[in-house]
Amino acid sequence: MNPQISLPRQHGGQPNFGSVPSRSRSEGLRMPRFFKRLFKFPQMDFEMAIWEMTRLIIAPKKVFRSIYYHTKNTWHRPDPSFTYLLSFFLLLTSLGWGLAYADGVGRTFRIMAVFIFGHFLAVSLLVATAAYFLVGQILGPGVPGLPGRRRGLFVAPGDTEQLEFGYCFDVSIRAFFPIWVFLYVVQFILMPVIARDAYVSVFFGNSLYLLALGYYVVITFLGYNALPFLHHTELLLSPLLVFAVLWVITLVADYDLPKHLAPVLWAGAGLRHGV
C-alpha cells in the first residue's frame, strides 16, 4: 500500500498546527487546520496513516521523509487520521484487557478511557510539549549567547526554520505506535507465558519492554533528525543507554517487568493486580 506523495509548493504560506493567515495581520489568527479537519472524516487520509503504521516498525525513517512532501511545505501534517486510527486500535485492545483482567463492564469502560485519553493522548501531549520547548531551545539554530532560539506556537509564513508544536505531536503519537504493538498487543498475548516464575519468562518479558522503549526513542530521534535546522539530534538517543542498563539490572535481580510493572501501569484503569 503506497500513498500518493505530491511535491511541495515552491511558494506560498506555511500551514502549521496553529496557522497564521497570509493575507494580513489584522485578520487575526485563523483556526488551526488540524482542528478544522477534526471531524471531516472524508478528507482524512487513512490510507496514508495505515502506510505509516506499517513502516514505523520495519522502516521508520521513511515515514518522516514523506511527511514534508505530503503536507506541502510544512513539517506538521494537519490530518488527525493517525490519531483516530491508533485510538481505535487502543479501543480494541482495551476490550481485550478488560475482558481478561477487569471485573465488570464499568471497569472495562474505565480501561478504554485510561488507555486512550490517559496513556495515549495525555502522555503524547506531555511529551510533545516538553520536546517543543526543550528540543527547540537546545538543538535549534539559536542566536548568539543563547542555547536555542525559542519558536512561537504560531509560525510566521515563509519561515522554514521553525519547530512546530504540531510536528512535535506528530512525532510523539507515531513513537507511541510501537509501544502499542509491544506492550498492549504482544504483551497481552504472551502474558500467560512471560508472567511465569521462570528466568526465561523474565528475559523475554523484560526484553519486550526494552524493545518497546527502544523503538520509542529511535522513532523520536528520527522524527527530529528529519528537520534540517536541528543539530546534534543524536543526543536524543541517549536514553537507550539508560534503558539498556536498567534491562541488565532487572535481569540480574530476576525482576519480572510484565508480572510486576503491568499491573501497576494499568492499575489506574481498573485491572486486577493478579495480571
Automatic annotation (TrEMBL):
Supply the InterPro entries for this chain: UNC-50 (IPR007881)
Membrane topology type, per the record? Answer: Multi-pass membrane protein
Cell compartment(s), UniProt: Membrane
Q: Which GO terms describe its cellular component?
A: Golgi membrane
**What is the superkingdom listed in this entry's lineage?**
Eukaryota
List the residue ranges of the region (Disordered): 1-26
Key words, A-Z? Membrane, Transmembrane, Transmembrane helix
- Which parts pass through the membrane? 82-102, 114-135, 175-195, 207-224, 236-253
Keyword Nuclease applies: no
Similarity section: Belongs to the unc-50 family.
For this entry, the protein name equals: Putative integral membrane protein
The scientific name of the source species is Viridothelium virens (Speckled blister lichen)
Give the organism's phylogenetic lineage. Eukaryota, Fungi, Dikarya, Ascomycota, Pezizomycotina
